[in-house]
Amino acid sequence: MSKRSIGMIAATALTVLAPLHMAQAEEIVLKVAHFWPPTALSQKTVLEPWCAKIAEQSQNRMKCQIYPAMQLGGTPPQLMQQAADGIADIVWTLPGYTAGRYPTAEVLELPFMTTSAESGSRAAWNLYERFGQKDFEAVKPLAFNVHDAGHVHNNVRPIKTLADFKGLKLRAPTRLTNKMLAMLGATPVAIPMPSLPDAVSKGVADGYVLPWEVIPTMKLHEMTKYDTETDPAQPSLYTAVFSIVMNKAKYASLPDDLKKVIDANSGADFSASIGKAWDESGTMARKIAAEGHQVDVIPAADMGPWRKVGDQLAVDWAKEMTAKGYDGQAMVDAARELTAKYATK
């Protein structure tokens, strides 16, 4: 074979292999958006380690660029649509910020459903698979999680009975927690999470319902002094459901091996790991947030009126869901069954 022929073959091989090499070396950057500050658990304990994992498992072909505190624009209730539209590739948000749009995600937000964030988060993923795939068909869910036990915090008075709620303006994250507050006797106020510190400092709200972990991050403990917990041996007063979802077109555009990386780091185990991070964060956050406060714990023996409110809200919600074409009672029953099942593991 002549030198000229060998040269032509080599050149042809390089021409064929070059695009392949470039494709393999191409770095895919995923825009990841959320509404918390960059120091929050959501970014430091969950998103940053998750992003590091997918970078490692993809040999750095896939990386994240995280945009905290709504840096891509818009408001927290718009995050889910931003993922659907491709403004962000991945978002972490509360489906409940868009009231009524994702009804199957609400069932775990009923009072006295969860005993831990880890078991509740595993249940949340299972409930999505069983009931919620149509609700979330515009995006690709990667995880569903709940936070650890939610409590009541205010700057007006201690809350020991339902009568103490009367006249208090309290902020809650979702429509079901707002309904719960109204049934307990308070006046719910709708305030976006980033605006809550300012609202409390100006008296627009007297307090809020939140888990301990969030409070120091937002410096809310500096504006309230009375905290009410329910008996820790009982299911928590409330929780909120979060979701991490991905733009479907972005996922579809990935090579098959990178899809496998995303899939391997999604689902029930990822959801449960997020819940576990919430559970583990609570003790230290409580030490910071409760310092100098009056903390009252409602004993199980006094929880009857509180549980009655929760039971009635569950009945009302099941009827509402059934009227919308869902099997509301089946979702309530499944939520209770799953949270009890996973709590024992």
In order across it, which strands form the biggest sheet?
7-6-8-5-9-11
What is the average of the pLDDT values?
93
Residue ranges: pLDDT <50 for 5 or more in a row? 5-23
CATH superfamily of the largest domain: Bacterial extracellular solute-binding protein, family 7
The major beta sheet can be summarized as: 6 strands, mixed
What oligomerization state is this entry in?
single chain
Class derived from helix and strand content: alpha/beta
InterPro entries: DctP_fam, TRAP_DctP_sf
Protein name: TRAP transporter substrate-binding protein
Signal peptide: 1-25
Keywords: Signal
Give a topology summary.
Elements: H1 3-25, E1 28-34, H2 41-57, E2 62-67, H3 79-85, E3 90-93, H4 117-132, E4 140-146, E5 151-154, E6 169-171, H5 175-184, E7 187-189, H6 196-201, E8 207-210, H7 214-218, E9 226-230, E10 241-246, H8 248-253, H9 256-264, H10 268-289, E11 294-298, H11 304-323, H12 328-343
Parallel strand pairs: 1-2, 1-3, 6-7, 6-8, 9-11
Antiparallel strand pairs: 3-10, 4-10, 5-8, 5-9
Q: What is the structure about, briefly put?
A:
The protein is α/β, with parallel strands linked by helices and 345 residues long. It has helices at 3-25, 41-57, 79-85, 117-132, 175-184, 196-201, 214-218, 248-253, 256-264, 268-289, 304-323, 328-343; strands at 28-34, 62-67, 90-93, 140-146, 151-154, 169-171, 187-189, 207-210, 226-230, 241-246, 294-298.
